[in-house]
Design a protein that fits this description.
Alpha-catulin; mainly alpha; Four Helix Bundle (Hemerythrin (Met), subunit A); 21 helices; about 725 residues
Length: about 725
Amino acid sequence: QITTLINHKDKPKRSDKTLQAIQRVGQAVNLAVGRFVTVGEAIANENRELKEEMSVACIEARRAGETIAQLTDVASLDHPESDSHITIFTDKTGVVKAARLLLSSVTKVLVLADRIVIKQIITSRNKVLATMEQLEKVSSFQEFVQIFSQFGNEMVEFAHLTGDRQNDLKDEKKKARMAASRAVLEKCTMMLLTASKTCLRHPDCESARINKDGVFHRMRLALEQVIEIVTDSRPNGENEMAPISIYSGIKEFKNKVEGLRENLYFLSKENLSTMLEVILEHTEDFTDSAYTSHEHREHILELSKQAKMELEQLVSVWMQAQNQKTKDLMEDLEVAILKTCQCMNELKREVHSAATSLAADLLKYHMDHTVLKALKITGVEGNLEAVAEYTCKLSEQKEQLVEMCRLLRHVSGTEPLEITCIHAEDTFQVTGPQIISAAETLALHPSSKIAKENLEVFCEAWESQLSDMSTLLREINDVFEGRRGEKRVYLSLPRPGKHNANLKALKPVKLDTEEQAKIAKLGLELHLLTSDVDSETEKWEDQENEIVQHGQGMSSMAYSMYLFTRGEGLLKTTQDLFHQAEIFAAEGTKLASALHAFSDQVHDDDKPLLLLEAEKLISMCKQLQITAKASVQGKSATFTKVDACILKTRNVMTLLCQLLPLCCKLLRKNKAGNGCLKPAPPWREDRIQTGTSARTPERRVETFGIKSLENHVANMTFLESK
């Protein structure tokens, strides 16, 4: 909205519609600032150490918002030049200054608030660590009960704080690491309970002590990792060096190879050769593995050899093209690029098949948990010899599963899934020996109910991780087959190669400066309409309502199309825009279906009007889809199609601005929902009570095992009478 005001072009002739739109934007900015500052001031009052800084930033932001509102108070001015008071038309620099002050003060408030959140998490972690130290030293059940009750409550608080933080993280890699650490803490909290009880019951048992120490150590590592993610730091200033996967290596290599089409001189042949060598070194994880089938091993070795040959041919043609850029050489270079990329795709497909087929076979084989069942039975029998035999089998199973995780990491496809594979590998590595020590303890004390319960808990953790691996395998296959994109945003952009079957694809076209200038007015109107739609959707109390969700999705897509008219955003080419227009129209059709369903809830008097508007929407969306799919050639025709798509999108958004308040009014009238007008939620420092209900479904993260942990803490009935 601020950008809209700053980029507003002065014109001698100004319509009432333009004046009203400008005033609307100014008022919206001021209202938004007011709500934001109210929260900031509440935070300041609850945190004395930052109160002064926060208060100053809030005052600056409020002042800037009010200035913008005053300068845009122009709707009633038919002849602004005859009016004495200053407006955006007479003082453009005033708006620029106010906008700069507003953005800097808002940023300052956000940074200060973030510091407070980080401090809360660190304080909570320190409390958990201090209580853990006390738990390690207890020598009686009574003392343990009291301290564990406190520990449980502290873990619940830490779970809520880190859950909110995980939701707020933008970096998918950090989000995945946080999820992994929190999963460890969830499982270890229950393990710590039973392992500590076992150690207290059998204080002279070495295997029980080893079992307990392992849980405490793993929890400390997980707590440390959470703080590293939150504070964005590493111990002793180390840099995190994650191992490169085959998938990411091939992706980067292909990008470099395909970049030769645009620039023959941007990298050296040594650079490319080194990249391929690294990829082929990683394939040795497959060819050296005892669990890779003979067929897969042979294919991987053949493709590795072919990749070297294709690169040699590519380098040869590339060097010639640098010296003499003839048409024949450039065609030969194109063929060499295609052959090299094709070979790398086949290699990627082969390692993917090797990893996923191994994983599927192992998961199917171990899903009956035969070894775990045998350990429980022989442990209760006190059969030390049989326990030793089955612990060897579990160790073999652990090695197989660890190898499976390592190979899956190479083909996982995204950084979050890579991290999930690494987490799974760590879990099998650690849990295997813990099951063995728990089983040995039970075999030494076969009548101990606590030792039996402890083994059950560790076995459940193993079974749970195996179950998670099945889900992970499905997700990896989804990514490989293109059913799940790397970017989880509101856009449905075509991925390179997915929508173009022919090798010689159409060259992407961008709007030039002159075309951007022509379409700027239409784009600005679209931007104002997105603001109106967002304002209408915010009035709905039920943000999960299907009508609201479709409206928000359409508004987001329309905004990305507006950014395209400015040469900004994720829509880079006209093809991107046309594809986005198709998705926008499809979303509009879904909204029309939701409106038809909603019409069944309204009174007969109101139904015809709603159905009429829904039919209008369907018609407009069909027209937009026809326009977006129409084939055109030439620069002029392409621009005409762009103009038509933006125009028809604007018309749909105009209708949407009428539909949303109508639906809200009918909903209120028929009392079919929970009310439409949503009050602004008050700030609560301890967001533990508020949860994440106001967040979108994609960002909602369950706090780890809180329900079960709270119940466990509340019902501390594990003191045995004997």
